[in-house]
């Protein structure tokens, strides 16, 4: 069963992709979603952490996981409940968040921006550790995983480093306004890779992916992926 969080996130991404790809309407206007109503069968179970505390876990029950009577309740511990979620457009900003363009109250307008360290190239000593992290995204280097790695590289080809990081940072949240159709397509391709890869979760996959792209240069990461995962043709010829 997939988590309720991942199912809703996937639905939002699919709606965004569908509307971005839609053809312009009258006077060049495009369709935008006004309201989406989603009804799901959700199983609630308790999960115990290492410190002995318990907390609820919400999982979406698919039709293939329902009981013989079709109720979705196979046992007392996994009885399902009908949950209806109504989604509607909201503001682009999060309540309480500080805009990058708004000056902080009481701060000097002439205050210099903090100096950030530029992403570094991957050293020989670090390469194996990076490959190990990327293997959790694509799978270990080989014929099957090379397909994911190739699509990943193709999705980011032609984008600047800043554009690549914008795409990566938007994977587990709603896409920001500056994402155009080209970046949206790249985001969709990588989103599918994360959801179908070893972690089978966009959130878990991006927790491994995003730190790499903020620590290392985009070029060095893509070169390492091409070198280790190759293409399926390369594996057949080797």
List its traits.
8 helices; globular; 2 domains; 238 residues; 13% strand; 4 strands; alpha+beta; 4-stranded antiparallel β-sheet
Overview of the structural elements:
This protein is α+β, with helices and mostly antiparallel strands. It has two domains: 2-87, no CATH class; 124-237, no CATH class. Helices cover 43% and strands 13% of the residues. The chain contains eight helices and four strands; from the N terminus they run βαβββααααααα. The longest helix has 17 residues, at 4-20.
Write the layout of secondary structure elements.
Elements: E1 2-3, H1 4-20, E2 36-48, E3 54-60, E4 80-87, H2 124-138, H3 143-156, H4 161-169, H5 181-196, H6 202-215, H7 218-229, H8 232-237
Helix pairs in contact: 1-5, 2-6, 3-5, 3-7, 4-5, 4-6, 5-6
